[in-house]
Design goal:
By secondary structure, the protein is of the alpha/beta class. It is built from 18 helices and 17 strands. Strand 1 and strand 2 form a beta hairpin. The model has no long low-confidence stretch (mean pLDDT 89).
């Protein structure tokens, strides 16, 4: 093989390696090589026939690549001479002293931060979790469960010229009316929540909704209550904003309406599936909390992050559906059951609250991307959302049943909780177990679990606990993963 042919093979890897169409992948790699200087201006490219042979693709594919990059200004075609890299206008290099002036090791910033969120203890999941054969993670979704065909149909419907003109404008502080309509018509009634469009705002996932709500309601002099154990990000949000923080006890029925809760002006709760224990709060406890809220003039923030994992009609009515005074701000997610990367959530609250939240959201980024909103609206309106929930529910119910049958066999020395409709189990290991050390040892064997210390305000309280989720792991991998987990717990228990 000629050296030049080897160089081209190394420059342009196999087109299928990213899962893109061959034309798109070759074009992407050529643009990359030109932008980072590996292909210099005026360099001649191989003929379409030669490059097609080198890469094992059709000649028409290479011709299309060259034509598109000529149109974009990356290449130039010279008659009877071939195709060449076009010269690009690039800025001059920066001053030689720039690197020293911006050295991150300099102490300039050490005393300038009003808060230090990077030092918070957070839930950590490997970005490459899909390469692990046994990912017992919550909040990630097995790619095989994503409704690829229906989603493509919904996206295609938003890609016509008329549709693009409809959603591509700056909405300022408004949302896509089509998505709000579908929320009010289909999604919220399924959760026993009825709302008008003026009571709904779309957010970048439930996470942003919680941040906006805590920013709006909490401040100096405000006492906020958070569940302990509870969602660590929400605890961090409350601690940054509130004047004082109360840790709310959690028992077998969820958050306890005791003296600690009575001392709060705002309580942040997960009654649907308590995070992280997955406990479902019964109706009697929910009514007790609403009664306490009326007596103490308290506001309640209900994070119903995975409500759609319940089979239709089986969920306990949320606090919002029982609220007759407008004390409950309801936060939900659409991406939790579809794709975490979609980042679509919502808030349901009285119109005066929504008005303030919209103004606050505008200061950050105006509104979530309208194309995603419109695609989700079409996905729901075409009936795909309901169908997806049915299929997802069946798949997760199968995995939950398998977990129920296998946990007693593999983890006899542990206790666990798993609420109805939950997609994770909260496990309390044997005394002396260090779940963080356990998680590290398991990761080396391809098993991912979530250490429990991060869910407690005092991490030592959750040292022996961990969470096992089954939305990300394939059904046929559960048995093998639990066997490895059981072996690791036995090894760690015997060595402690």
């Amino acid at each position: 093989m000629k050296p030049t042919e080897l160089a081209w093979r190394e420059l342009l890897a196999a087109p299928e390696r990213r899962g893109l169409p061959a034309e798109a992948e070759i074009r992407r790699q050529l643009v990359h090589a030109i932008e980072d200087g590996r292909l210099q201006p005026h360099s001649r490219l191989p003929s379409s026939r030669r490059l097609a042979a080198l890469l094992g693709v059709a000649r028409v594919t290479v011709l299309e690549v060259y034509q598109r990059l000529v149109e974009e200004g990356y290449l130039t075609a010279r008659e009877r001479s071939g195709v060449f890299v076009a010269p690009l206008n690039r800025p001059e290099a920066g001053p030689e002293g720039l690197a020293a002036a911006t050295d991150p090791a300099r102490p300039f910033w050490s005393g300038r931060f009003a808060v230090r969120p990077a030092e918070f203890l957070n839930i950590a999941k490997p970005r490459d979790w899909q390469r692990y054969p046994y990912p017992f993670l919550f909040g990630q979704l097995d790619p095989a469960l994503f409704p690829t065909g229906p989603w493509r149909e919904a996206v295609k419907a938003t890609s016509s010229v008329a549709a693009i003109q409809s959603w591509s404008a700056d909405m300022i502080d408004e949302d896509d009316p089509a998505l709000v309509e579908q929320l009010c018509r289909q999604v919220l009634p399924r959760r026993a929540v009825w709302a008008r469009p003026a009571e709904v705002m779309i957010t970048l996932g439930a996470q942003q909704a919680l941040y906006l709500v805590t920013r709006l309601l909490l401040g100096p002099g405000i006492v906020a209550g958070v569940e302990d154990p509870g969602y660590p990000d929400l605890r961090h949000m409350a601690r940054m904003q509130a004047g004082a923080l109360r840790l709310l006890s959690v028992d077998a029925e969820g958050a306890v309406p005791d003296a600690a809760m009575a001392a709060c002006q705002v309580a942040l709760l997960t009654p649907g599936h308590q995070c992280p224990t997955s406990t479902v709060m019964p109706s009697t406890r929910r009514r007790d909390i609403l009664r306490l809220a009326r007596q103490r003039d308290m506001l309640l923030v209900e994070d119903d992050y995975d409500a759609d994992l319940f089979a239709e009609g089986e969920a306990v009515p949320p606090l919002k559906s029982l609220d007759t005074e407008g004390r409950v701000i309801y936060v939900g997610s659409l991406s939790k059951v579809l794709a975490p990367g979609l980042r679509l959530g919502f808030v349901v609250a009285p119109p005066p609250v929504i008005e303030q939240l919209r103004a606050l959201r505008r200061l950050i980024h105006r509104h979530p991307p309208s194309n995603n909103q419109r695609a989700m609206a079409g996905f729901i309106a075409l009936g795909h959302y309901r169908g997806h929930l049915r299929r997802l529910g069946e798949a997760l119910a199968e995995r939950a049943a398998l977990m129920d049958s296998l946990l007693p066999r593999h983890l006899p020395g542990c206790r666990w909780r798993c609420g109805a409709g939950a997609s994770s189990a909260w496990v309390e290991g044997p005394p002396g177990l260090d779940s963080r050390a356990l998680a590290g040892a398991l990761a080396a064997r391809g098993v991912l679990i979530e250490p429990g210390d991060v869910f407690f305000d005092d991490p030592a309280m959750g040292r022996s606990c961990f969470r096992l989720g089954w939305t990300a792991i394939r059904t046929d991998k559960i048995h093998g993963g639990l066997a490895i987990l059981a072996d690791a717990i036995t090894l760690h228990s015997s060595s402690s």
